[in-house]
Structure to design on (1049 residues):
């Protein structure tokens, strides 16, 4: 993809809309005319869109001649992560979404499963949840994920079977492994997608993801390279109901020795699951912020979380102050969560926190400052002292359950 | 207002501001409440090379002067006047060495101070000698190759925490003020101990203690300059350090003002922000103008002192007196702007007022400053042609 | 032990806001900063150098000419040398093109034992460039490093953060690491560092100096392409309750029950 962009000076009225629209600060006004800094311009076309009134920006995109036959690539693949021989629940969620895409493309939904000898037995679980074909590669060296062999095996499978779309989950496994495969395959990879659709006209995968810390959404295309790869974020889709009657194909591939070479080795794994639930998986999260005043008051947050069967979260302030470990931090530099219910206690609602939780289905906020920004995104806001409100909430919830 | 700082001065100001905002502001209230000496901040300031801003390069400093010190102290004081003292009081304790010490002494003591490895403190005041500094009774009697120190110093900032102390003591009582001398005393010297930490109204993150000398033996090499130069060195020290105190007051005032105006914009009463009321606007305008006037005076004075040209005791006294009076005024007003909230410890301005008060008292009370100014004015007037 | 640190100059996205009327980004007055995760990478590299008492730390970035400011900041933090990869031809690079370009830059630097990157950049948020560089240079990688347990000639052992705990991984050198916040507390710049940074010459390389394949850089070398940018669907505020805690609590429970949320 390459192209040219220019300002048609005669048409430019100096309204500055394009300057404000550019996400890359590539346009400035000089002598009341827009000027584009070609060092920064990415040809995204945001400026063209806002200038529809005056049409003073010309963007010509040159289609690159593709060197591959796009029609050779078929099927939607899901990368089925496993840990200790158990396929991770996040994979099943993704099968639901993958199925939708495969149906639209009139192709098959497949899964790639790597592990040791025992992993073959798990392949059928993927079929029950909608996969038509499972590519299984088992070897002792693949028991635990390691970047090099996992990336290599995936690369070799893609080269052989040519999927059109590959979808790993955006996890601590998916995110580091897939870029290696993408580079080895010379194809495009979009990270952390929250939306996947097939474009009606072109049949291309529309990959939508947040950028700028969640302040904007971008839709990405991979036009001329295959496969189109996207790592998919948590909790963006529903898990399908398993149908044990379903049948499918299980294809076992014997890996070549050099596929399994790994210069890194896992020595051991130390589990650090907190007493309360891992927050990215929780349906209910109760979070504490600076307003709880001290570490001892997380007990209050925990009591409310317990009554609601939820997990304890935190704003960055409490983590930085050492009141609670980083694993509980929700926000831009912490975790992004999408629970059904998020209760923000004593959290002001700075944008860095909001980007981590604003996609929750229902948000309740408790803050004694009626002007706290959190009330702008809360479905229910309670203006009050959390030390008075939370005990009442606990009582009220207990009575109703 | 633009003071046309050089690039390096701008760097010092920005770095000190960054430390103030990111490292000092989060702990200021706690260290004040619990009287915690800010060793962690000392390390950060040291790593940033800020301890060396007023010390020559050949002694591991950055080669700047009192003006650069003022820039740093002002920024740090915006976050906490007490914590900023670890630097400002160290400078006060170091100036006697810079002014009167010989090469060996400078080489021995300045590098560790410039790199923040050791803090310093200055000791003149005694229980019976405050404003009347000539009344000091601590003695330093020559004994062979040593001096024996006996006496007590009171209300010494950084006492107990600093390693290096510059002490003014009487070597010859008969000669009155001309009989005092300046000495360097290291912590840990036998016969040198400290009193309890004083429980103060403000600047509580700074440590204030008595120094107790009981037959404390120090080598004669620790005499700064010659015998009899004690007060002269002390006065010259104050000329250099008073702009620093003024800068501390300035920072406290600015910090209080910044908080107050932000509050005034956000606080809504009678359907409007209180900043939209004329009475409040007049208040804010007065506060800001006083602060800016103080700043201009302090900066100009610091530069004059650094130039070494002419006499500047009057200027230094003016800067210290005016800036500290402004700080007191502005912090009291800031509490008023916040109303009831200003009175609560939960909000930072009451601490700023408590911190500001001392700047009107130490390093020469503002009454003494006025005396210094007046005496100089009268002299100048008298020497003018009729 | 020579270390290369890859950094990126990014807008301070915590300050970037969307204009709700025009659905566009408001970038006025938004500062450019070193990507926060990269500051942890710089700090770790400088600490390794200080711990071992030897070695050189070189920082490299790909960006427009003003990315030089980020490099100068890095020098003020203790980095020895800085390289800026800048060329109009790099504009529009996606992560594939970027990792190719940076890899070629690192190849030209040549002498390195470890490459350290931050986990991800806060504007793109992809976390792809680090691993991409590793592949281009044919290096193993350890990502999400939260602690380096052991480091010596030809060997490293590190803790790798995952969702439910951490793995202890060993690797041969050279290796590429991406680091997370837990690894250290970045220092502030020192005045002496800032003064050194002011004087220091930044090495600049473009397409020609690096001998790059023009089909692999910039827009041409980018398989992915931004089709559209829009403001995310924002939650609008709902009901705000005031009054007695007891009453408010009752009302909330009622509402949640109505919506079948509890």
């Amino acid at each position: 993809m390459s192209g040219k962009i220019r300002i048609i000076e005669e048409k430019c009225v100096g309204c500055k809309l394009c300057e404000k629209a550019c996400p890359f600060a590539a346009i400035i006004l000089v002598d009341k005319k827009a000027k584009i800094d070609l060092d920064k311009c990415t040809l995204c076309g945001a400026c063209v869109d806002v200038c529809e009134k005056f049409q003073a920006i010309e963007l010509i995109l040159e289609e690159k001649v593709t060197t591959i036959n796009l029609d050779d690539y078929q099927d939607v693949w899901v990368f089925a992560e496993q840990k200790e021989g158990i396929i991770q629940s996040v994979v099943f969620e993704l099968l639901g979404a993958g199925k939708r895409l495969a149906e639209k493309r009139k192709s098959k939904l497949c899964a790639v499963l790597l592990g040791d000898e025992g992993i073959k037995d798990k392949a059928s679980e993927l079929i029950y949840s909608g996969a038509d074909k499972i590519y299984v590669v088992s070897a002792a060296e693949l028991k635990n994920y390691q970047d090099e062999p996992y990336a290599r095996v995936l690369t070799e499978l893609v080269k052989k079977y040519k999927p059109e779309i590959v979808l790993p989950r955006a996890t601590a496994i998916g995110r580091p492994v897939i870029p290696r495969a993408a580079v080895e395959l010379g194809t495009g990879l979009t990270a952390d997608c929250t939306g996947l659709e097939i474009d009606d006209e072109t049949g291309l995968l529309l990959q939508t993801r947040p950028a700028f810390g969640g302040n904007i959404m971008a839709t990405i295309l991979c036009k001329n390279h295959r496969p189109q790869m996207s790592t998919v974020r948590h909790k963006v889709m529903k898990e399908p109901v398993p149908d044990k009657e379903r049948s499918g194909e299980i294809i076992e591939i014997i890996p070549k020795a050099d596929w399994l070479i790994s210069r890194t080795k896992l020595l051991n794994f130390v589990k650090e699951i907190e007493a309360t639930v891992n927050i990215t998986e929780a349906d209910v999260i109760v979070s504490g912020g600076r307003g709880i005043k001290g570490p001892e008051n997380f007990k209050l947050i925990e009591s409310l979380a317990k009554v609601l069967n939820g997990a304890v979260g935190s704003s960055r302030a409490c983590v930085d102050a050492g009141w609670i470990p980083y694993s509980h931090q929700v926000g831009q530099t912490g975790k992004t969560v999408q629970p059904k219910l998020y209760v923000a206690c004593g959290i002001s609602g700075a944008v860095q926190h909001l980007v981590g939780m604003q996609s929750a289905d229902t948000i309740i906020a408790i803050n004694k400052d009626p002007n706290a920004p959190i009330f702008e995104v809360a479905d229910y806001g309670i203006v009050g002292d959390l030390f008075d409100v939370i005990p009442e909430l606990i009582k009220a919830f207990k009575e109703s359950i | 207002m633009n003071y046309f700082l050089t690039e390096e001065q701008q760097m010092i100001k920005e770095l000190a501001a960054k430390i103030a905002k990111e490292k000092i502001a989060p702990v200021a209230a706690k260290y004040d409440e619990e009287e915690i000496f800010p060793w962690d901040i000392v390390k950060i300031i040291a790593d940033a090379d800020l301890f060396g801003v007023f010390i020559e390069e050949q002694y591991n400093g950055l080669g700047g002067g009192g003006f650069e010190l003022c820039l740093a102290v002002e920024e740090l004081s915006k976050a906490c006047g007490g914590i900023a003292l670890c630097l400002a009081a160290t400078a006060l304790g170091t100036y006697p060495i810079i002014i009167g010490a010989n090469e060996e002494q400078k080489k021995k003591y300045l590098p560790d101070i410039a790199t923040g490895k050791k803090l310093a403190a200055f000791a003149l005041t005694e229980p019976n000698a405050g404003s009347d500094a000539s009344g000091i009774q601590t003695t330093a009697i020559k004994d062979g190759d040593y001096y024996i120190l006996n006496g007590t110093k009171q209300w010494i900032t950084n006492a107990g925490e600093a390693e290096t102390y510059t002490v003014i003591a009487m070597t010859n009582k008969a000669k009155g003020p001309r009989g005092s001398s300046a000495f360097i005393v290291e912590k840990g010297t036998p016969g040198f101990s400290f009193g309890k930490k004083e429980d103060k109204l403000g600047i509580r993150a700074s440590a204030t203690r008595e120094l107790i000398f009981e037959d404390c033996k120090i080598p004669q090499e620790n005499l700064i300059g010659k015998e009899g130069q004690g007060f002269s060195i002390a006065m010259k020290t104050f000329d250099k350090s008073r702009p620093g105190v003024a800068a501390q007051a300035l920072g406290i005032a600015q910090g209080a003002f910044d908080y107050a105006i932000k509050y005034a914009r956000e606080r809504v009463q009678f359907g409007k922000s209180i900043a939209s009321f004329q009475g409040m606007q007049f208040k804010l305008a007065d506060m800001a103008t006083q602060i800016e006037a103080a700043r201009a005076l302090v900066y100009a004075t610091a530069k004059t002192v650094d130039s070494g040209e002419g006499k500047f005791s009057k200027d230094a006294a003016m800067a210290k007196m005016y800036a500290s009076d402004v700080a007191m005024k502005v912090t009291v007003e800031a509490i008023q702007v916040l109303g009831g909230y200003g009175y609560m410890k939960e909000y930072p301005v009451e601490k700023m007022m408590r911190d500001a008060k001392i700047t009107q008292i130490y390093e020469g009370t503002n009454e003494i400053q006025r005396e210094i100014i007046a005496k100089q004015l009268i002299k100048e007037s008298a020497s003018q042609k009729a | 032990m020579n270390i290369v640190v890859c950094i990126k100059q990014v807008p301070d996205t915590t300050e970037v806001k969307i204009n709700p009327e025009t659905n566009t980004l408001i970038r006025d007055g938004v500062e450019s900063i070193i990507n926060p995760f990269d500051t942890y990478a710089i700090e770790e590299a400088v600490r390794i150098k200080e711990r071992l008492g030897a070695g050189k730390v070189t920082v490299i970035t790909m960006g427009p000419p003003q990315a030089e400011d980020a490099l100068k900041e890095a020098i003020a933090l203790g980095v020895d040398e800085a390289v800026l990869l800048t060329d109009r031809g790099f504009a529009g690079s996606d992560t594939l093109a970027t990792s190719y370009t940076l890899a070629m830059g690192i190849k030209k630097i040549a002498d390195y034992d470890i490459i350290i990157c931050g986990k991800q950049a806060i504007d793109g948020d992809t976390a792809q460039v680090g691993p991409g560089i590793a592949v281009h240079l044919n290096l193993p990688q350890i990502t999400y490093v939260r602690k380096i347990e052991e480091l010596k000639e030809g060997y490293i052992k590190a803790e790798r953060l995952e969702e439910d705990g951490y793995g202890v991984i060993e690797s041969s050198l050279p290796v590429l690491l991406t680091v997370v916040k837990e690894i250290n507390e970045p220092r502030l710049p020192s005045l002496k560092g800032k003064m050194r940074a002011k004087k220091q010459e930044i090495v600049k390389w473009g397409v020609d100096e690096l001998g790059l394949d023009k089909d692999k850089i910039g827009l041409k070398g980018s398989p992915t392409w931004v089709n559209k940018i829009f403001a995310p669907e924002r939650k609008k505020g709902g009901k705000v309750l005031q009054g007695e805690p007891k009453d408010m609590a009752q009302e909330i429970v009622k509402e949640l029950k109505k919506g079948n949320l509890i």
